[in-house]
Design goal:
Structural class: alpha+beta
Number of strands: 5
Strand order of the largest sheet: 2-1-3-4-5
Order of helices and strands: HEHEHEEHHE
Number of helices: 5
Shape: globular
Largest sheet: 5 strands, mixed
Length: 132
């Protein structure tokens, strides 16, 4: 009986596929940003989170911007007490952050994109993320 040699994918295709998977990550981020109209803080928060997402989550995030003046019931349903507020709905755990998102390191730690450096209790106070 003759042995049949199984054909395998060329290494270059396999390596390329593995590289793409590794770079893409496995978590799809679902974010919701609540803002109040076209104020300076709202505009800054939108620009900050979009830039951070494009830089670190390109192709694997969904960002919904909700103007609480236009959709007040959305704010009530999500228990929004201040704006701008960012909610990370996925991946778990769900978290909320209030502010214009200017401190990129803190936002990245809150989104689990960066490990915290230093005392966890101090970091928790500084970040102002709420885990739900």
């Amino acid at each position: 009986m003759a042995k049949r040699k199984l054909k395998s994918k060329p290494r270059s295709q396999t390596a390329e596929f593995e590289k793409i998977i590794k770079e893409a990550g496995s978590d799809q981020y679902v974010l919701r940003l609540y803002v109040t109209g076209i104020t300076a803080k709202s505009t800054q928060a939108i620009a900050n989170i979009r830039a951070l997402c494009e830089e670190h989550l390109s192709g694997r995030y969904d960002l919904e911007v909700v103007d609480i003046y236009q959709q007040p019931t959305e704010a009530v349903n999500s228990q929004i007490v201040a704006a701008p507020t960012l909610i990370k709905q996925s991946p778990m755990p769900v978290r909320k952050m209030i502010g214009d998102l200017t401190d990129r390191d803190r936002v990245m730690v809150g989104l689990d994109l960066k490990k915290s450096s230093g005392d966890k209790a101090k970091l928790a106070k500084e970040i102002k993320w709420v885990t739900l």
